[in-house]
TrEMBL record, chain B:
Protein name as catalogued: PadR family transcriptional regulator
Gene3D superfamilies from the UniProt entry: Winged helix-like DNA-binding domain superfamily/Winged helix DNA-binding domain
Domain Transcription regulator PadR N-terminal: 24-89
UniProt xrefs under SUPFAM superfamilies: Winged helix' DNA-binding domain
Source domain of life: Bacteria
C-alpha cells in the first residue's frame, strides 16, 4: 500500500530539501504502521493530516548555504527543473540580441513586416473567399443567366426575360425550392411624413427573403406577400424612423406608391453582393406600376431581357442536372426570328458570383479570382522574402558563434543541447517578430481597410488564424534555426578553438541564391506596379470625346421631375447658375439601353442591327460639348429633327456605310431616322473596351437624367446651393441628389486603382525588406573582411577600390536577379494586359528603368557599409594582432 | 535554571527520548506518546520539538539505517546530551519537591 501521491508531492513542494528524507521517511513508516493497525483508509486519511502538520515555518524555511558542504551531491543535490536549461538558452539568446542591436532590429523588424503583410493579405483573402458565405443557403442559391450569340460573338448576361419564371415554375418546378424575380438595384426615394431619404433597394419576388434567408429583426419573411408592403434594413429603418417603431407604418416609395413596413432585417454584411440592398419592395408592386413590365408579362415578351431571376435549388437536385434540363427553355419559346441568338439559359451558383464573373464567348474566364490569386502569391512572396532575410542573417551571424559552440562543447555540452539552444534562440526571435507583426497589423488595419474598400476586423477569436500563425512560427523558427542548429553544432571543438576552423568556400552559396530570389521577386513587383500604374494612367488619359468639367447629373427619380425642363432651365439660366442644361435617357457614364432591329441601306444580311440607344434633348450636345466629325447637331430650327439621328464613329464603322453617312436613313421598327451628324466616339462605358456603336435620338419623354453644365464663373458649391433651392421650389417632394460626371467617371478606375495601390504598397515593402536584408549582409561581410581591408589599405588600395571590392558581389547578384525577373514579369504582365482591349504597351524602357532602380537601391544600401568599412583607419583594424 | 527554555510538550518529548533510548526517533516517539496519552500525535509536532531541543543542545542526533517501510530512507536517532540530562533532573527535582509539599491534603481532597 502506497501513501497518497498527491500528499507526497505537496510535501516535497513545501518542505525544505534538507529535511525531506527525514520527514518523508517518518511519514511513510508511520503510514505502514497505521495500515497494519487500522486499515488503508484510515491510514490514508491520517497521512493527509500528518502531512499538513508539517506546514510550519521550521520545515518550510530553506537551509542557508553558509558553507559549501564537503560532499554536496551526497547530501543536498537537487535535480534541476527541466526548464533551467531552456531558461539559460533564452538568457543567452536575449543577451546575443542585445549585444547586436542593429542585426536584431533588422532581423526582427524585417520579419515582423513580412508577417504583417502576410497577415493583412491573409485577412483580405479570407474576406474575399468568404464573400456571400453569410447566407444560410449559400450553396443552393443560384441566379439565372444566359448566353446569347450576336454578330458572331457570344455574350453572357444576368438579364433575362420575364416569362422565364413562369416557364421554370410550370415545367421544372421540382428542381427549385424558391424562385423570385427582381429588377435592378437602384436608388429610390423613401418618404415618411416630412422625411425624405434616397436609398438603394430593389423590387423582388415574395420568395426572395427565403432565398436570402433574411435575418429578420422584426416581422417575418412573409412580409413581401402583400402587394403594398416593404421590408427595410435596420439602418434604413433607423434613418427614416429614428427610435420609433417602424412596423406597420406607411411610407411612400418614389412619391408614387404607399407601402406598409412589414419587416425589418439586419443589414447585410459588407462582404456580400447584397450589401447595398437596403430595402426590398414587392415585385408585384413593380409590375403593377410599370406599364412596360406589365406589357412584357401580358405579351410574354421572351425577347425583352430586362430582369433578374434568383432561385434556390431544391434540396436533392444537382446544379449540373438542372442546367442541362433548362438549357433550351428560352430558345424553345422565342419568336422564330430571334432563334438566331441561340439563347442558352443556365443557373449560376452564388459561390461563383463574386470571384468568377468574367465571361468570354460563353466560357467563364475567372474574374476577381485573378486578383485573389495574385495577392495570395504576393503575400507568400513577401513572407518568403522576410524569411530569407531572417535565415540569411542568422546563418551569417551564427558563424561568428563558432567559438561559443567550441567552448560549450569543451565544458561538456552535448550536441542535442546545442541544437535546442539554437532552436530556442530562433523561436525567441520569431516570437518577438510575431508580436510585432500583430501590432503592425492592428496599426495599419484601418488604413488597409480604406485602401482595399473592406471592413475587416482583427481575427482575435478565429482559431484558424491562430493555427496558421502558430504553424508559421514553427516553420520559420525551424527553417531559420536549422542551419546553425544542425551545422554549427557538428563542429569539432578542438578545431574551432585552435582557430584553424574555416567555413568552406561554398558556405555562402545558398545565401547568394536566396539574395537572388529576393531581388527577383522585388524587381518583378516593381515592374508590375509600374505597369499597373501606366495602364491606369493610359486609360485615364483616353480621349473622352466630350467635356465633363463641371457637369452635374441628376436622376429624375419621380414623376414630378418630368415636364419641368423648360421652367427649370430658364430659372437656372437667369440666375446665372448654369450655362446649359439637357436631358438624356442614360447618365454620361453608363449606357442604359441597347436595342436590335435597326436596318439601313447597304446593311449586310448576316449583321444584326444592334446599337446602344440614347435619347437626348436638343441641348445635350451643347451641354456636354460633343465633337462633330461631320454634319450638325440637333437643332430647333429643323422641326424634322424629332426623327433625326446622331451617330458615333464606331457606328459608322459598324454599319459599313459607303460615302458620307449624313443624310442616310435608318429604319427601326416602324420609324425612320435621318442621320444628321457623326460625332467622335464618346467614352461612356468601360474605359478599357472600345466604344460601342451608338445612336442618339431626340426625345423629351424617354429621359431619366438631367444634365447641367455649371457656370464656370461661379464656384461649384455656390452654384449647387442655388440649384438646390430652385429644385426644392419646383420639385419639392424629391431629395436633391446630384452626381458630378467626372467623379462618376473616376469610379470606373476604383478597382484598378485599388489593385495599383495595394501592389505598389506591397512592392515598396518587398523592396524595403530585401534592402534591409542586404544591408545586414553587407555589414556582416564588411565586418568579416575588416582585416583584409586594413591590409589592402596599407598596401595602397584606394577607398574607391575597396568600395568596388565590397559592392561588386552584391551588384552581380542583383544583375542576375534582374535577368531572371524580366521574362517572368513580362510573361505575367502581358497576360494581365491582354484582358484589357484598350491597353498600354510593355515598353522595354520600363524593364530597364526598374532594373536600374533596383541596382541603384542596392548600391545605396551596400555602399553605406562598404564605404564605412573602407574609411576605417587600418591601424585600428590591424591593431588587435 | 533556565526553566522557560523547556515547553511542556518539549519536556514530554525529551523524557520519551530518554525512556526509549537508544532507539528514539520521531516515529517511535510519536507512537509512544499516542499510546501513553491516548490522543493523536503527529510526527510533525514531534519532529519540530526534536529540532528545537537539538538546537538548544539537549539532544543530539545521528542518521541510522534505512528501512523498507520508510521507502529506503534513513532514520534520525536522538540521544539525550549531558546538558539535556541535567535539565531533566532539574525539572524532576523541582516537581518532586513541590509534590512532596502538597501531597497529603490534596490527596484527601481528591477523594
Amino acid at each position: 500500500m502506497r501513501p497518497p501521491k498527491l500528499a507526497d508531492r505537496l510535501l516535497a513542494w513545501f518542505c525544505a530539501p534538507h529535511l525531506r528524507e527525514d520527514v518523508l521517511g517518518d511519514l511513510h513508516e508511520r503510514f505502514s504502521l497505521r495500515t497494519a493497525r487500522e486499515g488503508v483508509r484510515n491510514a490514508r486519511r491520517r497521512y493527509w493530516r500528518d502531512v499538513l502538520a508539517y506546514v510550519r515555518p521550521e520545515f518550510i524555511r530553506r537551509q542557508k548555504q553558509t558553507e559549501i558542504p564537503l560532499f554536496p551531491y551526497t547530501e543536498t543535490y537537487s535535480k534541476p527543473a527541466n526548464t533551467t536549461m531552456i531558461r539559460n538558452y533564452l538568457k543567452i539568446a536575449w543577451r546575443t540580441l542585445l549585444k547586436h542591436k542593429g542585426y536584431s532590429f533588422i532581423n526582427i523588424f524585417g520579419l515582423a513586416t513580412g508577417m504583417a503583410v502576410a497577415m493583412l493579405i491573409g485577412l483580405w483573402l479570407y474576406d474575399e473567399l468568404s464573400y456571400n458565405k453569410s447566407f444560410a443557403n449559400y450553396d443552393r442559391v443560384v441566379q439565372a443567366m444566359q448566353h446569347q450569340t450576336s454578330n458572331g460573338k457570344t455574350g453572357t448576361q444576368i438579364a433575362i426575360p420575364v416569362p422565364l419564371e413562369d416557364e421554370l415554375r410550370n415545367k421544372y418546378g421540382s428542381s427549385f425550392k424558391h424562385m423570385a424575380m427582381a429588377t435592378w438595384q437602384g436608388s429610390r426615394i423613401l418618404t415618411y411624413g416630412d422625411k425624405k431619404i434616397t436609398r438603394p433597394g430593389n423590387f423582388m419576388g415574395a420568395d426572395m427573403p427565403e432565398i436570402l434567408s433574411l435575418p429578420m429583426i422584426k416581422g417575418s419573411r412573409d412580409g413581401l406577400k402583400d402587394n403594398n408592403s416593404v421590408l427595410l434594413s435596420a439602418s434604413t429603418a433607423k434613418s427614416l424612423f429614428g427610435e420609433t417603431n417602424p412596423m406597420g407604418k406607411i411610407i411612400r416609395l418614389d412619391n408614387k406608391s404607399d407601402v406598409k413596413v412589414t419587416g425589418i432585417y439586419k443589414d447585410f454584411p459588407h462582404n456580400s453582393d447584397f450589401r447595398e440592398l437596403t430595402f426590398i419592395a414587392p415585385w408585384k408592386l413593380y409590375v403593377s406600376t410599370q406599364t412596360w413590365v406589365k406589357k412584357a408579362y401580358d405579351e410574354r415578351q421572351w425577347g425583352n431581357n430586362s430582369f433578374q431571376l434568383y432561385a434556390q435549388l431544391a434540396d436533392n437536385v444537382q446544379l449540373e442536372a438542372v442546367n442541362a434540363r433548362i438549357k433550351n427553355v428560352k430558345l424553345d419559346n422565342v419568336d422564330p426570328e430571334d432563334r438566331k441568338y441561340k439563347a442558352e439559359i443556365f443557373m449560376y451558383p452564388m459561390s461563383r458570383w463574386h470571384l468568377y464573373n468574367d465571361w468570354e464567348e460563353g466560357v467563364n474566364t475567372g474574374g476577381y479570382i485573378q486578383y485573389v490569386r495574385l495577392f495570395a502569391i504576393v503575400g507568400i512572396f513577401v513572407l518568403l522574402l522576410a524569411c530569407i532575410n531572417f535565415m540569411n542573417l542568422s546563418t551569417a551571424r551564427s558563424e561568428k558563434r563558432a567559438k561559443e559552440v567550441g567552448i560549450r562543447k569543451a565544458v561538456g555540452s552535448v550536441r542535442s543541447q546545442l541544437i535546442s539552444q539554437f532552436f530556442s534562440e530562433s523561436f525567441l526571435i520569431v516570437g518577438i517578430a510575431f508580436v510585432g507583426a500583430v501590432n503592425l497589423v492592428l496599426l495599419f488595419l484601418p488604413w488597409f481597410n480604406e485602401v482595399a474598400g473592406k471592413e475587416m476586423d482583427f481575427p482575435w477569436t478565429k482559431a484558424l488564424f491562430w493555427l496558421l500563425s502558430l504553424g508559421f512560427i514553427i516553420i520559420t523558427g525551424l527553417l531559420a534555426g536549422s542551419y546553425p542548429a544542425l551545422y554549427l553544432s557538428s563542429f569539432q571543438p578542438v578545431k574551432v578553438l585552435k582557430g584553424t576552423f574555416r567555413v568552406g568556400r561554398f558556405a555562402a552559396v545558398p545565401r547568394k541564391v536566396l539574395v537572388v530570389v529576393q531581388f527577383t521577386v522585388s524587381v518583378t513587383l516593381i515592374i508590375g506596379t509600374v505597369i499597373v500604374y501606366r495602364q491606369i494612367q493610359h486609360s485615364k488619359n483616353r480621349p473622352l470625346g466630350y467635356n465633363n468639367d463641371g457637369v452635374v447629373m441628376i436622376q429624375m427619380m419621380s414623376q414630378e421631375f418630368y415636364g419641368k425642363y423648360d421652367l427649370l432651365k430658364t430659372q437656372l439660366l437667369n440666375a446665372g447658375l448654369i450655362t446649359d442644361m439637357a436631358e438624356s435617357s442614360s447618365p454620361l457614364t453608363q449606357v442604359w439601353s441597347n436595342n436590335g432591329g435597326f436596318s439601313w441601306p447597304g446593311k449586310k444580311p448576316g449583321v444584326d442591327g444592334e446599337f446602344n440607344t440614347i435619347w437626348v434633348t436638343h441641348d445635350f450636345g451643347k451641354t456636354i460639348g460633343w465633337q462633330f466629325k461631320e454634319g450638325r447637331d440637333f437643332s430647333r430650327q429643323f422641326s424634322t429633327d424629332t426623327s433625326a439621328m446622331v451617330i458615333n464613329e464606331a457606328a459608322v464603322k459598324f454599319m459599313g456605310l459607303t460615302g458620307s453617312p449624313v443624310g442616310k436613313v435608318v429604319t427601326w421598327g416602324s420609324s425612320q431616322y435621318r442621320i444628321v451628324g457623326v460625332i467622335k466616339d464618346m467614352l461612356m462605358e468601360s474605359p478599357y473596351t472600345p466604344v460601342y456603336q451608338t445612336v442618339y435620338m431626340m426625345n423629351y419623354e424617354n429621359v431619366n437624367w438631367m444634365i447641367l453644365k455649371l457656370n464656370p464663373a461661379k464656384s461649384p458649391t455656390e452654384s449647387l446651393a442655388g440649384i438646390e433651392s430652385t429644385f426644392k421650389k419646383l420639385i419639392p417632394s424629391a431629395p436633391f441628389d446630384y452626381k458630378f460626371a467626372d467623379d462618376e467617371f473616376g469610379k470606373k478606375f476604383t478597382s484598378e486603382e485599388r489593385i495599383g495601390k495595394l501592389a505598389g504598397g506591397f512592392a515598396v515593402l518587398a523592396i524595403l525588406i530585401s534592402c534591409l536584408g542586404l544591408f545586414g549582409l553587407s555589414s556582416f561581410v564588411a565586418e568579416q573582411r575588416t582585416k583584409e581591408i586594413g591590409v589592402r589599405k596599407v598596401l595602397g588600395a584606394s577607398v574607391l577600390n575597396l568600395w568596388g571590392l565590397l559592392s561588386r558581389d552584391f551588384i552581380l547578384l542583383v544583375l542576375v536577379a534582374f535577368t531572371i525577373a524580366t521574362p517572368v514579369a513580362w510573361y505575367f504582365l502581358d497576360d494581365w494586359l491582354l484582358q484589357y482591349e484598350y491597353r498600354t504597351d510593355l515598353s522595354w524602357w520600363i524593364f530597364v528603368l526598374s532594373g536600374l532602380g533596383a541596382l541603384l537601391l542596392t548600391l545605396l544600401t551596400v555602399s553605406f557599409q562598404s564605404i564605412k568599412a573602407a574609411l576605417i583607419n587600418p591601424v585600428k583594424s590591424l591593431k588587435s594582432e | 535554571m533556565r526553566r522557560s527554555d523547556l515547553g511542556e510538550f518539549e519536556e514530554v518529548v525529551l523524557l520519551t527520548v530518554a525512556a526509549l533510548s537508544p532507539g528514539a526517533y520521531s516515529v517511535a516517539i510519536a507512537e509512544e506518546l499516542e499510546q501513553e496519552t491516548g490522543r493523536p500525535v503527529s510526527t510533525g509536532a514531534v519532529h519540530a520539538a526534536l529540532q528545537r531541543l537539538e538546537q538548544k543542545g539537549y539532544l543530539r542526533s545521528e542518521m541510522g539505517e534505512a528501512t523498507a517501510e520508510r521507502g529506503g530512507r534513513r532514520k534520525r536517532f536522538f540521544t539525550v546530551t549531558a546538558l539535556g540530562g541535567r535539565v531533566l533532573n532539574e525539572v524532576h527535582d523541582v516537581r518532586t519537591r513541590l509534590w512532596d509539599r502538597i501531597v497529603p491534603t490534596i490527596r484527601l481532597e481528591w477523594r
